[in-house]
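User: Show me sequence and structure for the first protein, then do the same for the second.

Assistant: Starting with the first protein.
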Amino acid sequence: MALDIDAVHVRLAKAQGQIAAVDRMISSGDSTERILVQINAAKSALHKVALLVAEEAVAEMLGDEEKGEEAKTIIERFSSLL
């Protein structure tokens, strides 16, 4: 398993766009409710990046001898904890 760099970049770009939107919303005096919705969207995007990286970290820690269906199950269980 290797870290999907393209997927990480896409999710980071999404988070950056959402953070920029939050900044614009604050500057324009948008409602706090709408700002919080956008902040939560940015948090979610960053959380997804963290999951991608954490899954790869677990896969690396398991090493080649643990690859296979058991490793996939461990990674899925670990990811569900984040």
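Switching to the second protein now.
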Amino acid sequence: MKMVITIALFAISIGFTYAQNVGIGTNTPQGSAILDVTSTTKGLLPPRMTKAQRDAIASPSEGLLISCTDCIVEGLHQYINNTWQAFILSSTGNYGTVVNPVTGKVWLDRNLGATQVATSSGDAASFGDLYQWGRGADGHQLRTSPTTTTQATNWLSGDNPWSGSFIINYSNWLNVSETYMWSGTAAENNPCPCGFRIPTNAEWEQERLTWSSKNSAGAFSSPLKLPLAGGRNSNGTISLGAGVYWSSTASSTARRFVITTSDALMDSYINKSFGYSIRCIKD
């Protein structure tokens, strides 16, 4: 009895209450919350750890949260669908989703970085960003980002001189060939929001086969409303007139899905230094 009273007095002294829910900093926690932390001067700090420490967690539970200190995308990471995924902050606000009624696949309703769903194939506000294959959202994907001729030596941005710049004059922005940076459980550089990823060749082809016409008109009239967002060449210049979308499938080079006014197809492999659009598909 003495222990119970002591604990109760301690709990009251720090503003901690317990009934069927818990309040810290408040004696009246919200009824719908199992834990209600209230403060106007302090934040909530999750466990902080390196990527190696994160990956060493034995049998992580679905939904587990940590803060990664040295991942390509630092900050909050959540364990979802048997893989760790970073919380990606979008400069364009919340994305919506669309469903292809034929395939049942769920996609984001616009390209990564786009400010709105396309209103036409040439709607510039729907174009979004242009990513080099396998890179995370480190700033290089912005159409106005500077260029550099310094080739990357590792995945991580940090204080590297190439961070935030579009790397030009190479067949690969990275000086080693990696095939899994955007695919599988090792997709550390996945720029899509949590629960989404970059589609495979097969998923793009499955989508294409449902279109009324295999060209830009069919792409726009499809549930995805894919615009002709152009691409960025390996010299840093931007070209318009086609829609070019990365797939996650790659070897020493990478696959791209190309849409023009006359055609839509999975193109041959191309160098990873080019910058193309990303449309994310749900896991």
